[in-house]
Fold these 3 entries.
Entry 1:
Amino acid sequence: MTAKRLIVFDTTLRDGEQCPGASMTSRQKLEVAKQLARLGVDVIEAGFPVISQGDFESVSEIAAQVKGPKICGLARCLPKDIEAAAEALKPAADAARIHVFLATSQIHRRFKLAKDEEEIVRIAVEGVRLAKRYVQDVEFSAEDASRTEPEFLAKIIQKVIEAGATTVNIPDTVGYAVPEEFASLIRYLFDHVQDIDKVVVSVHCHNDLGLAVANSLAAIKAGARQVEGTINGIGERAGNAALEEIIMALHTRPDAFGKIETGIQLKEILRTSRLVSRMSGLAVQRNKAVVGENAFAHAAGIHQDGILKKRETYEIIDPKIIGWEQSELPLTKHSGRAALENRLKILGFELEKEEIDNIFSQFKQIGDKKKFIYDDDLVSLVEGQISRIKETYELEYVAVTVCSGGIPMATIKLRHGEEVLVDASTGDGAVDAAMKAVDRITGQHGHLVEYEVKSVTEGKDAIGEVTVKVNFDSKKLVTAKAASTDVIEASIKAYLNAVNKALL
Ligand code: KIV
Ligand code: ZN
């Protein structure tokens, strides 16, 4: 049986980033894109260039710096969108793909677009033709395809193929489909679109009913040869299909799905998942398939016994193949800059000299407090460095007093340009008091929506990583993080990062 090749299209940086509070800086997106290239995805959808200057620049930077995968930019079927995408993608040259989309379902045609079928076909065809003037590789998505009348869907797909589309994508935009029905729709298109064999048929499933992965797999079985999704399944509402789950299902069950090849380097899966989680600030649920903390943790004695006798009794995936348990020997405060640089390279980070200088100085400070510095500690330091933004306010000093039965109190000193500002506040606890003191100095009043402390590694001396989600004026939801061996300091830095992000 010859293997079929599946194109893996990653939209973590576009659809994934549309998740509230998940926005990433250009620097963070670049690092994720480089890791996606190492993971071996075929296409990276880097953003929606017309939407903002930041998105435009980020697509352009990724197009210039990330080699290997195709780099894709999203556009509505509007000249200004397509022109912005073409311009942003220029540095990718032949590796550029423009992805145009237009809603096709009756509900969207009637209520959102107020256009009839004929007009929808005309706009889609013009969009594809215009994109084709800039790049060879054009993808067309029929938004809300799964709720579109199959006859109309087949008609518009044939027309966009005639106009030059090279990939046609069938999204389940609102996560409404169920597997057998979605597979039937794909088969229907193979049977009713005359030129379907000339293009790649793609699917893009959302997870509103928790069926995004199941629907994607059913469509692959029915002949789809591109699958779209995000790492960790992040995305709007309930998210997109989790690529790592699709990949591992195909890998583990060739008997069910046939022999399907991808370019994915399985050993990079866990690292990619963790990077996306840290960069987006969206934690991976513990029991998440493939990449959750508990995915390979066996608590029940009977399972542990079985695993020790033969791993396959209770484990269907060898955790090592996706990058679990790959830790190298830890570094210590005696390790030099060359050792640090070398380890960072092994971990897959390509950093500027100045960035390494900063990380090295933090590494030495941590080395004084902690006996061993593990790979996860280093990743946390690197991610702190990558996530740095312009600091309107910098933390100079913090002192907190807490005593049982007493009133917690915090004194904070912040640098604001040349000025040093000091204030103090009481609060419910040390963190509350310190955040209130920050508010008094900066004049910002953030409402803390989420607060999470997590230790990066084991041990009482471990680095604590704090993630906060803060709402400013009920308008702006900002996610920010910081790490320190002292969790109070990490909490204040994370909150201050959120304030600085909001001020940007
Ligand atoms: O969900 C969707 O329909 C999309 C399209 C833009 C492909 O994200
Ligand atoms: Zn989508």
Entry 2:
Amino acid sequence: MEKRNYKFWFATGSQDLYGDECLSHVAAHSKQIVDELNKSGRLPFEIVWKPTLIDNASIRQTFADANADRECAGVITWMHTFSPAKSWILGLSEFRKPLLHFHTQFNSEIPYDTIDMDFMNENQSAHGDREYGHIVTRMGIERKVIMGHWADTNIQDRIASWMRTAIGVMESSHIRVVRVADNMRNVAVTEGDKVEAQIKFGWEIDAYPVNEIVEYVDAVSEADTKALTDEYYDTYDILLEGRDEKEFREHVAVQAQIEIGFRKFLEEKNYQAIVTHFGDLGGLKQLPGLAIQRLMADGYGFGAEGDWKTAAMVRLMKIMTTGVKDAKGTSFMEDYTYNLIPGKEGILQAHMLEVCPTISEGPIGIKVCPLSMGDREDPARLVFTSKTGPAIATSLVDLGTRFRLIINEVDCKKVEKPMPKLPVATAFWTPRPNLSTGAEAWIYAGGAHHTAFSYDLTTEQMVDWAAAMGIEAVVIDNDTTIRTLRNEMRWNSVAY
Ligand code: MN
């Protein structure tokens, strides 16, 4: 799917009080920092050096240019020396993209033997960055502050992580969700204010009668369907489990036809996320299962039963993780059933069908089984178990007066035994800090049963994204206690 060639600008602040020699050092130092950061191989996007900013006019022009440049995903600012912060007011007030305040210093150690007042005046980011930080805080501008030496790999990784958050901010307004089914009747938590979602997140959320997408499915040629079915048979294990081989393949081919038809519809109409509903399938023969799983693996967002908020979040989180080295996957997910045995507590995660195979570990099989709900023929689906390790589960809920993003850190594990009769893909996790506190906190926070789940994003990234969007974030992690969480939400209700 379309990827923009994003870059980040590096703007160094100073002033003309120090003379040309000092300013030439400032420029050389910031150039070297940018070069080294780009050469580190740890940043997912290039940093572009900009000439030192020393007055209102140059600062305002640089931010205006950054706004206008489609490839610029944000500006990284650093005050090498002192830069009187009133100079930044006009530029900052007009700036609309992600802002990182990189509070670093060119040298890492105080040069004890040679340090004099010239050195002090040239290398005073401890001084200048406080002046700059003050005005950003006073203006109430959302930004990220990262402090540390630029050559420190941990600091470089934090910049890399922030860059992905910035991409999430930039790309959010390019997410278009197609609803070929409304919300499931009477369900509350998957509902929400679509106008407010567009104001806050930039999402376009459009409805189509399901049979408009069915026309695209019906128009798929037999040859194309056969070719994709063959690809499925080459890619996945075929788990007949006593079903007739020919009848099984016919069921799988229905999903191939749906995948091709849906993909064409999404591409033609420029949608990056989709919702379906098992009870509203129009002319479709099966609930899209395997088809949706394959689309999700290619980067499309998905939400079941009309859940457009989760569909958009899955899409968003897939964009934020694009190109992550050794990525473990991002998926739509649903809390199903608990294991309450002491020491082995956790939540079994699955959905009727639609779990993204990017999170799988081990073989992926195709099964054809009846759905316990709805009135269509048995759908084909991909079945697998998921990777282990830390991950985050997120739920975006509409509280009527505001959106809240709930972020729970979880530890994914293997279940003790295989589940041979369960015909769906699964994950199993223990929420932090533990199952009972995690689940109680989730319930208090009003979190949904549907989640957007990822191994490849952090709480910090999602909290920063929520802050940039101007919405509340509630974190459930190892520091969570119920008393503090409930108080935090009371305070938040006033703040928002
Ligand atoms: Mn569901």
Entry 3:
Amino acid sequence: MSGSLMQGPLLISDLLTHAETFHSHGEIVSRTVEGPIHRYTYKDASQRAKQLANLLESLGVQHGDRVASLAWNGYRHYELYFAVSGMGAIMHTINPRLFPEQIEYILQHAEDKLLCVDLSFLPIVQRLLPQLPHLERIIVLTDDAHMPADAQQTLSKGNHPPICYESELAKHNAEYEWPRFSDDAGAVLCYTSGTTGKPKGVLYSHRSQILHAYASVQPDAMNLSSHSCVLPVVPMFHVSAWGVPYSCTLTGAKMVFPGARMDGAALAELIEDEKADFLLGVPTVWLGLLDYLRQNDKKLHTVQRVVVGGSAAPLAMIKEFQEVHDVFLIHAWGMTEMSPLGTLCTPTARLLSLPLDQRYQYQRKQGRPVFGVALKIVDAKGEALPHDGSTFGRLMVKGPWVIERYYRSDASALENGWFDTGDVATIDPEGYMQIVDRTKDVIKSGGEWISSIELENIAVGHPDVQEACVVGVPHPKWDERPLLLVIAKPNHQPTRESLLQYFEGKVAKWWIPDDAIVVKELPHTATGKLLKISVRETHQKHYL
Ligand code: ADP
């Protein structure tokens, strides 16, 4: 027997209509690529999103068409998010930090019809334009005054000259009725970074994005409301800035977009000026901010919580945020295939009741699933492993915003109904999950496993270390042994001995790396993660 309530689709356009109606004064602040700070309200954004939908319709964009963006976090990108998905087309965000060949591949694979670009990324587009047969036009996300002088020559596609976003938008009115359609329809397309092989597309639906937004704003998840002032440093070009533009719109939270400047000084200024209380980003961004604050003897006054994900948050960072700035670090974990939210380690009543030292032991973990996500760990054969906090296995996930198959693939991406995340993890009796490693990065020494992440987290606590990378490299006796590479803090010179000694008493003796090297640079992926494949290759003969 069915329930007897109304059936209605969960659509992204409804979020903006809700914000326009009930949070009409809610602010959206952007540091623009052109320079000045831009400020408007959800009501203004909603009006402009409707103008944009009319503009896109006049360009022939239809239900299901892909519209791509290469853009920073800012209000025009936000308008695209809502106009493109709202009209039933697919918002395809592209990570400009990928290699040009990967961007070319992605644009070809998605068969994007339009490409909307911030001024910073025009050189990439000029280079790729001849290779993109499906692309019809470029929209430059700026006003007339900032259109490049040679735009006609360098950005035309066939007979179609490039469009200036602002001047074209101004020609369209804000009367637009968002269409209704099944919420199963694709809304947002994101590609994985593809450290091995080609990037793969994940197509989120309206339904999955709305459910993800509902789950993320809950008090014991991100706890967002009209009281919040949110600064997403995590980019809108990668997994929808962890879904935050939708979550903020759902709640009417004030949103602050950092544009192209994500260095410590720029972030500290924006946080202070706008009174941001909730920040989100990857560990490298926070290393930069904390460094700046330390060197300039400054404190964060308005921030209450910072979400850190994408890579493991080191204990030293958790402590510095807490003890110097009185900020609770929420460790989070997820991935492109999960829209991306999987787990959050939030300040529950129980965690806050614990003495700091005990609390930190929880905060080092990536946390517990938000309602909607199910987790389990399994062995090589797929048998479930115990949640005892020490047994580790392949981390499998399930849920309404978890991938079923990659974009344009005929094959399911699942194993008996579960998605294998490619991470190795433990889960404790209270449900706290801790990432041990990526399956391909875990170090296999004499038949036992060593977590490279655990060793890195310890190494960054060393007073001379800025960033650390541990990889397993071939060893004649043990198969693989850990090798530590560090970047020193400015004006510090750690010795090999002090680096290795630093592990003593913190891990089992056989986990301690056999050698340590100080390097000037470490390679990173387009999403800021250590590119360990390349580090392993460079140092593969180190112990041979
Ligand atoms: P994102 O870069 O947004 O995290 P990706 O899909 O590019 O999304 O990468 C997902 C992978 O990043 C995860 O499978 C995991 O290996 C790693 N990761 C994400 N968050 C964490 C975290 N808090 N700690 C350790 N690893 C993490």
